[in-house]
Amino acid sequence: MQLRYNYRVNPTSTQQQALARAFGCARVVYNDGLRTRREAREQGLPYLSDGELSKRLITEAKRTPERAWLGEVSAVVLQQALADLNAAYRNFFASLSGKRKGRAVGPPRFRSRKDNRQAIRFTANARFKVLDNGRLRLPKIGDVQVRWSRQLPAKPSSVTVIRDAAGRYFASFVVATADEPLPAAVAEVGIDLGLTHFAVLSDGTKVTAPKFLRRAARKLRRLQQNLSRKQKGSANRKKAVVKVAKAHAKVAGTRRDWQHKLSTRIIRDNQAVYVENLCVAGLARTRLAKSVYDAGWASFVGMLKYKAARAGRTFTRIDRFAPTSRTCSTCGRIDGPKPLNVRSWTCPCGAMHDRDVNAAINILAAGRAESLNACGAQVRPATLPAPRREPGIRPGTACCSARSAEGTSVLESGENVKWTPT
Question: Which listed residue (32, 188, 276, 294) is catalytic?
Fold first, then answer.
């Protein structure tokens, strides 16, 4: 499995200028490639291959006065920019043909120097290196200081240097790691995700939603008001933009850290984890959009998925249309629709249910059923002996003749016939 390990880096002022130069060159090559392919399409020319595009926009462009400054950065950075363009086109064509699942992907767009996020990538061909003193050596940039929060488990295959909207720099290493199975656990858990409680487990545990964005709303409102008062294009406005970006980055980082801790604890304590396949995009189009995005369900479920794969646990999503909130977990009776303000209800069988806990128990039951079916358990009725003298089957028919040819004339010998209902 390939994982990313992100670390903060502290480039010097000179290295920041070199990184800005690399960001700009990669952006120019990307835009040149996109423009060239659009012009070729408008003129009815064949689709330019990756090799031809690299030859025109990198090798030959460096010899021209207009693009001679491309030689000031690593060639691998420019090649990876074209690789990103090619990947964008492949995703676009796969989405048009229906081979790509999920939302429709649009055609590539031009990159802007005003984008909040800038990134360049170095592969093994660039010969980047992690030195013994802990610094990261990047070609034509220098030895960059890295804040190592943990050691890399293996030699990285590539590193991406990122500058976010808050002006922070990160080094993202891609490392191929082996799975680390945990000792087998007995417990299994179903998780019902919500807004009042972020997660309700089938054992009755309720995790209160932290609502990081709501808690930081007052500070964000004040910073946004200060930003709106600044004159467009001024230096003070740029400083205000960075302050707003830092506040949002703090909210996102706090949420991500909390979700990592919760997902790790759930995976460590349970052998199987079952969650509901929520349509986050659809819920984000309702009046609850702000709360839905503040919860971050999609990122949390993604953490559960990859951590379960690494730890040797079972992770399953159940059908989003399963009536988990309307089904009695005791008798299985499906009751009528229930609005969101109904938090508890009583089944005609006499069982009293908490809405969220009951849904989590039903998610656990549905997940167990799906996992058993996926593992090859028998889901059809077992074979039963057919009664003697069953109508429609007589000795001498084609079926019995074939059996007799094999020496298994079961009807003539008077034995029972095994059959499977269809």
Answer: 276
Q: Which of 32, 188, 294, 356 is catalytic?
A: 356
Query: pLDDT digit string (tens) for 285-304?
Result: 889 899 999 999 999 999 99
Average pLDDT of the residues in 103-110: 92
Whether 356 is catalytic: yes
**CA-to-CA distance for 24 and 36, rounded, in angstroms?**
18
How far apart, in Å, are the Cα atoms of 224 and each of 100, 237, 241, 248? 38, 11, 8, 11
Verify whether residue 192 is a known catalytic residue: yes
What tokens appear for 266 in the block? 């759930």
369: CB partners within 8 A, 6+ apart: none
To the query of whether residue 72 is one of the catalytic residues in this protein, the response is: no
Q: In angstroms, rounded to a whole number, what is the distance separating the alpha carbons of residues 171 and 163?
A: 9
To the question of pTM greater than 0.85 for the whole model, the response is no
Task: Copy the structure tokens of residue 272.
Answer: 């199987």
Summarize pLDDT for 299-351 with one digit per residue, the tens. Answer: 999 999 999 999 999 999 998 888 888 888 888 888 878 888 888 888 888 88
Q: Indicate whether 405 pLDDT > 80.
A: no
Spot the catalytic one: 192, 269, 335, 370.
192
In angstroms, the first-to-last Cα distance of the chain is 42
Q: What's residue 196's pLDDT?
A: 86
Residues 6+ apart with CB under 8 A from 251: 212, 213, 216, 220
